[in-house]
Amino acid sequence: MGVTLKNLFRPPTTVRYPEQRRKLPERTRGRHVLHRYENGLERCIGCYLCAGACPADCIYIEAEENTPENRVSAGERYARVYEIDELRCIFCGFCEEACPTGAITLEPILDLSDYQRGPLIYTKEMLLEPPRTFSPARSSAGHASE
Amino acid sequence: MQDLVSITVDGQTWQVPKGTLLWEACKSQGIDIPIFCYHTKLGPVGACRTCLVEIEGMSKGPTTACSTPVADGMVVSTRSPVVAKAQRGIFDFLLANHPLDCPICDRGGECPLQDQSFAYGPGTSRYIEPKRHHVKPIVLGPTIALDRERCVLCWRCVRFTAEIAEDKSIILLDRGEHTVVGTFQDEPYVSNFSGNVVELCPVGALTSRKQRFNFRPWELQNRPSVCPHCAFGCNLNVSIRKNDEVIRFLSRDNPEVDDSWLCDRGRYDYEFVNSPDRVTAPMLRRGDAFVQVPWDEAFQFIAGRLATVVEESGPDTVVGVASPRLTNEDLFVFKRFMNAVVGSVQVDHFPRPQLELAGDGETALETLNSLNASISSLDEARTIVLLGADPSLREPVMELRLRKAVNKHGARLVVINSDEIPLTGKAEARLTYPAGRLADMAHSLLSSLTGGDAPEDVGNVVATYLTEGPVAIVYDDRLDGVTDKNGALVAIGDLAAALGERVSVGVLPLLDAANSLGARDLGVLPLGGWGGSAVDRLLGPDSQVRAAFVLGANLARDIPAPETDRRLEQLDLLVVNELFLTETARLADVVLPAASFAEKLGTFTNSERRIQMVRNIVPTPGVARADWEILVDLSQYTDRPLDYALPQQVWEDIRRDVPVYSSISYDTIPPQGVRPASLQRA
Ligand code: SF4
Ligand code: SF4
Ligand code: SF4
Ligand code: SF4
Ligand code: FES
To answer: Candidates B21, B67, B116: which one to mutate for ligand 5, based on the most atoms within 8 Å of Cβ?
Structure first.
């Protein structure tokens, strides 16, 4: 009875998601974000190492050569196509670990849901942080757009 | 019997032929010694020093296994502390200026430098100094990009252009620390064989401009196949990605044929397999447009029209023309379909030499056929005669074989041509004749050989070069630009026969397409043999033909005339099996989607009559099928169905029908292909 009474007057532990959000630990492995350098160039060099490391085989990349007219990343090579099937991803973080340029990280973004499977294949445009935001955008910034 | 010497390596003692290089000897015994600069097809240079071993009694310390011939009683250690330390040092040197941009390097994942540094290198570098930098990438030529930072100066590319292709275009510039790979005065590196240096380069310094960044090696699987682009039949490894995309061709060493080289035409022409323009479903003509239909509907339509035509005007108003790029299985079923199902004898292959062969022409072809020599017999030939033939144009890798025969085996090359050809510079003797007059030249040679009159220079060549065997004759069976094709062929045949009575002679033809010889052996020829031509019959001015089956042959493109298009359009039924909507397919009533060489199991017969297998490596696009399967299915809609389910069954029938193939069965065709037992002489 004492336990009951004690808990009866405790504030609720649930939050009114999505209006309210719980503060997640900083190292929560949620949805991926592709980062840029300060000058706006993409960090990703399309090296496929993340795709090679991925145990779920959910990263698909097509690389292309940078040209003076179209410089996308810092080196010779960039990812023309970069897609992650978030439905297949097991959020292990191996991709982040494999990446030689720190281009991809898993962020505390957990709202990954949709009525269809298609939109959950995230394209490069959806994963890339917007230009000029320097520090990796934590929590609210990279909301699942659908 | 070769002299054998006895050597001891790491405690194992065995015997090897005298003169073998120590590295080769160890390799044959399964002892691994790292190499960079050494390559089995190139001469040793000893440039990289990774192959160091310790030889007992040799005072100068560790020495290079790749350039040291074995000696009797040699005692070698490949694993001693001295060797290990030396090798670690060498790898430290190799990586001193190496950019380690493995993540964006096309070699990364199949890179000997990665693998061997991992196995034999020090793990961490002692160098903290800044690395040397170069502009990257440098465009070396239309096909090749160079990254000088990655180059380990192994000389492989340099030796390839110096020893194998002999254009000496890639060289090392400057000395010492400043040495870089380049071309003389930065001229572009243009070669028919440029792709080979990419494959030879043990790092990612030379990359293919076409394929840069297209894939990472670990995604790929290599499947054995055969080049479909000419009758030389070079062996390939086809790299595929995700089980369905053909992404590159690599060479697959067949010492009897390609000797591990490919030409650029063969190496870089693979995109057609995955092209989005492939025909993926049967298509019926409705007015001016095509509509995709199910197989069933297409077959019913064809069978219906065919029956009407045959009933009204007889089976011989139906002709069939197949491309010699098809497999033996396709061609055999095609012939059987035309003969047995349609009942027409008007089958043919195209392109082929369009000769008006009277009886003697056919005899000449038979003579030349019976003297068919192996490609490797070029290495034994005392004299090689290129009679109106330019291998560099038609079967490019043969050029490399000929250079090797001259350089390594002392063959004497005689070039008889009306023009300069790339091999002219390699010739010991040379005869020219006015353009198109090959027949006269062959007659002079023959007459000089048999003691008749001949111009002095011809007489000299015959006396010096054709009196001592073995002689190999390479002739071009297409006889492009030759005025009297029939006469020329007869004269070449007579010459070969007359020569054959005196010395041992082998003949290698240059043919039209990958399986031209197969099409010939299977007799895909109309009634009247070589003299008849189903194509002439089809396109001729007062053609009675009402229906045609065209398999992969692009008549409308290859016989460019308004008449061709008009005739094809007028047919009551034109069925075209194709990969693409070609000029011919556009004129068809029905287009059926065919499988490419990478999508079906079958065999090709190359110009030395080697039977080699192509395999179904990737799935066909859409509902496309092998040509033979299409015809078998179509025959089910007639009252004379064919009964084949597997290419093996077709091959068994081929064996029964074509005596020269009788000794070969599917199970016994080795990865390198096989020539019929009856031919395996010299
Ligand atoms: S988190 Fe793991 S499963 Fe998800 S994409 Fe990265 S490597 Fe693949
Ligand atoms: S995200 Fe990193 S590991 Fe993946 S392709 Fe880009 S650079 Fe390479
Ligand atoms: S470019 Fe490649 S093949 Fe040529 S020397 Fe350098 S490492 Fe060797
Ligand atoms: S020589 Fe002929 S068979 Fe060989 S790679 Fe070139 S095109 Fe292919
Ligand atoms: S492989 Fe022997 S020195 Fe390079």
So the answer is: B67
CA gap B369, A39 in Å, rounded: 69
C-alpha count within 13 angstroms, C-beta hemisphere, residue B673: 34
Q: Are residues B380 and B316 in the same domain?
A: no
| Mean pLDDT value across residues B349-374 | 83
User: For residues B76 and B10, what is the distance between their CA atoms, to the nearest angstrom?
Assistant: 6
B377: domain CATH number is 3.40.228.10
Domains of chain A: 21-132 (3.30.70.3270)
Query: Rounded distance, CA B166 to CA B159, Å?
Result: 9
pLDDT of residue B37: 95
Does A77 sit within 8 Å of B104, measured CB to CB? Answer: yes
A85 touches chain B (CB under 8 A): no
Would the CB atoms of A65 and B214 count as touching at under 8 Å? no
Residue of B255, B257, B360, B681 lying closest to B504 (CA atoms): B681
Please tell me the distance in Å from A126's CA to the nearest CA on chain B: 23
Question: Does B470 share its domain with B527?
Answer: no
Q: Encode pLDDT of B6-58 as tens digits.
A: 999 999 999 999 999 999 999 999 999 999 999 999 989 999 999 999 999 88
- Cα separations in angstroms, A111 against A32, A114, A120, A146: 12, 9, 11, 10
Judgement on whether residues B521 and B506 belong to the same structural domain of the protein: no
Nearest CA, atom 3, ligand 3? B201
**A-B C-beta contacts closer than 8 Å:** 28
Residue A77 CA to residue A61 CA, distance in Å, equals 12
CA B518 to chain centre: 15
Give the distance (Å) from ligand 1 centre to CA of residue A127.
14
Q: How confident is the model at residue A140 (pLDDT cuts 50, 70, 90)?
A: very low
Q: How far is A19 from chain B (nearest CA, A)?
A: 42
